[in-house]
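Input/output pair, single chain:
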Amino acid sequence: MAVADKFQKIIDFLTSGFDNREDSIYEEMMDGAEDYPVQDNLALNPSYTQNEQKSQNLKVVSHPNYRGYEVMVCEPRSYEDSISIVKHLKDRKTVVLNLHLLDKEQALRIVDFLCGATHALSGSQQKIGDSVFIFTPVNVALSAESQKSKFLRDALWNQPQA
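Output:
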């Protein structure tokens, strides 16, 4: 008998939080359902309520590591400087590369290396002048106007006035 009493005490303890309700679940669900008409278990004109959220409780906190967008202007003097330029791209900084201090062979090596690194980082690159290039990380969109569209734009806006 002692074992049966212990089981009964455990069951009573586990079920003590539940109320024995007389109402069925369906009756609880139907409370207030007569506020609008239904047809084939579909509400014809349901009433909706919205909870208004107060925007006054929202607080904006600045991020301590946010530095905005940075543009680095680099004038490398040797091929070894290209590694630090790639680090700038990895830190999501835009790099403007001026190669006027290098001979043609080293300039070509640096541009090839940086184009590959930029592609690997899902960035983009563009030549913007003689020995001047721009490399952007993935978070910066780079768009350029083509010569053809520039010619059409100038032709349209520079027409003689009638």
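DSSP finds five helices and six strands in the chain. The radius of gyration is 35 Å.
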